[in-house]
Amino acid sequence: MGSKNKLKRFKENETFENVFQPTREEVVSGAFPLKGKWNSDFFKNDNPIIVELGCGKGEYSIGLAERNPNANYVGIDVKGARFWRGAKTAVDSGMHNVAFVRTQIELINDIFADQEITEIWITFPDPQIKYKRTKHRMTNSEFLQLYKKTLKPDGIVNLKTDSEFMHGYTLGVLHGEGHEVLYANHNVYKNEGAPSEVTEIQTFYENQYLEVNKAITYIRFKIK
To answer: Does the model's pTM come out above 0.85?
Structure first.
């Protein structure tokens, strides 16, 4: 994407009521105004809040929000030019149950209060295969504890990925730490039983993977 396009999208993001782009300082200082107040101050309802981490273009956040009007969705990504597409789709379609925040995923506890979230989706994260990148894997022990803090006691995490490595690594962490695996599948398009939103909502990159017959894996779990 050219720099002109990026600048245009950044400027347009600033006009969207469903986009929040706080500075890192604002977030870590505890000044983000919607923390603990997403339902009352933004969504204006008591519906459950579901978060997509590393939302990219926002395809999953939008797809889920369209399917479930009685739930609220928040997509988080550090790259605002990416989720511009999802934010614009929501604005153009008059969707009021989806929002986007430009921030780092490790700051999730500064964006949401304890037990403010019902469910988390992690869609096609970078598997960070090199050993020295372990700390960046989005299902490592440290990240799971961050998620647990924001999730309600019975909250659920979904991992959808094309990486067999990430799938296996995550299962190892979950089993090793005694978390509850609700569903796990190495190839959701060839096996029955996956929730419909797993196979019926597809991202841009997922379509590319499917064209070359790359298996898409999925895990649904609870953090103990």
So the answer is: yes
For residue 185, pLDDT beyond 70: yes
Task: Say whether domain 1-103 belongs to CATH 3.40.50.150.
Answer: yes
Strands 217-222 and 180-185: antiparallel
Cβ(139)–Cβ(70) below 8 Å: no
Q: 114-224: which CATH architecture?
A: 3-Layer(aba) Sandwich (3.40)
pLDDT digits (tens, 9 = 90+) for 71-86: 999 999 998 888 999 9
**Is the per-residue pLDDT at 4 higher than 80?**
no
Runs of H (alpha helix) within 69-217? 80-93, 108-111, 141-150, 164-177, 196-200, 204-211
Query: Which entry of 92, 114, 126, 154 is annotated as an active-site residue?
Result: 126
Report how far residue 171's alpha carbon sits from residue 179's, in angstroms, rounded to the nearest whole number.
9
Where do the structural domains in the chain lie, given as residue ranges? Answer: 1-103, 114-224
**Span 12-49, pLDDT tens digits:** 788 899 999 999 999 999 999 999 999 999 999 999 99
**Tokens 């992690």 label which residue?**
122
Identical fold for domains 1-103 and 114-224, yes or no, is yes
d(CA 206, CA 86): 16
Asked if 162 and 172 touch (Cβ cutoff 8 Å), the reply is no
Q: Does pLDDT of 2 surpass 70?
A: no
Tokens 């998620």 belong to residue? 147
Query: What distance in Å separates the CA atoms of residue 63 and residue 121, rounded to the nearest whole number?
Result: 12
Instruction: Report the amino acid identity of residue 191.
Output: N
Note if 126 is an active site residue. yes
